Amino acid sequence: MPVVRGCNLPDDLLYDVDNHIWYKELGDGTVRMGMTQVATALAGQLVAYTPKKVGRAVQAGKSCATIESGKWVGPAKTAADGEIVAVNDGLVAQPNTANADPYGAGWLLILKPEKWDDVKAKLTPGTAVAAPYEAKMAADGFAGCGG
């Protein structure tokens, strides 16, 4: 697994580095998405997660959920057009789950994406994510995910 500045980036995922979002293909035409450890470190302890409703259509580059921490409120942006087929109700109840386990229990939602092959071609595979993430952290002046 790549580790960049103390941030874990599992190599079995696909990444939208600019928006700090990961994707995992579920094998049934859907993808699970969540925030990277970098996103949760930047935001700090999450206090609210407000996803769009199941069945809602979302557009690439637009919000599919609102994330709130003590120092930040903003959108989780999807890289694909599609329909939300599931949301993580556990994360609604305990938003800081994403801080503790961003790649497991802290996932955001499951999306049925349109034109996934086109979107996937624009995402960075985990095996190649270290250099782009290092460059993004350097450009953003982010020291890393240290304790």
Describe this protein's structure.
With 147 residues, the protein is an alpha+beta fold. The protein has a single domain, classed as Beta Barrel (OB fold (Dihydrolipoamide Acetyltransferase, E2P)). The protein has helices at residues 37-43, 89-93, 97-100, 116-120, 130-140, and strands spanning 3-4, 7-8, 14-16, 21-25, 31-35, 46-51, 57-58, 63-69, 73-77, 82-87, 109-113, 124-125. It has a seven-stranded antiparallel beta sheet with strand order 7-10-11-5-4-3-12. A three-stranded antiparallel beta sheet has the order 6-8-9. A two-stranded antiparallel ribbon has the order 1-2. The radius of gyration is 14 Å and the shape is globular.
Summarize the structure.
The protein is an alpha+beta fold and 147 residues long. The chain is built from 5 helices and 12 strands.
Features:
alpha+beta, globular, 5 helices, 147 residues, seven-stranded antiparallel sheet, OB fold (Dihydrolipoamide Acetyltransferase, E2P), three-stranded antiparallel sheet
Layout of SSEs?
Elements: E1 3-4, E2 7-8, E3 14-16, E4 21-25, E5 31-35, H1 37-43, E6 46-51, E7 57-58, E8 63-69, E9 73-77, E10 82-87, H2 89-93, H3 97-100, E11 109-113, H4 116-120, E12 124-125, H5 130-140
Antiparallel strand pairs: 1-2, 3-4, 3-12, 4-5, 5-11, 6-8, 7-10, 8-9, 10-11
CATH class categorisation? Mainly Beta
The fold-level CATH name is: OB fold (Dihydrolipoamide Acetyltransferase, E2P)
Percent of residues in beta strands?
Answer: 25-35%
Shape: globular
Give the averaged pLDDT, no decimals: 96
Structural class based on helices, strands and sheet pairing: alpha+beta
User: Main sheet, how many strands, which sense, barrel?
Assistant: 7 strands, antiparallel
Give the CATH H-level superfamily: RNA polymerase II/Efflux pump adaptor protein, barrel-sandwich hybrid domain
> Between the first and last Cα atoms, what is the distance in angstroms?
19 Å
Spatial order of the strands forming the largest sheet = 7-10-11-5-4-3-12
Rg estimate, integer Å: 14 Å
- How many individual helices? 5
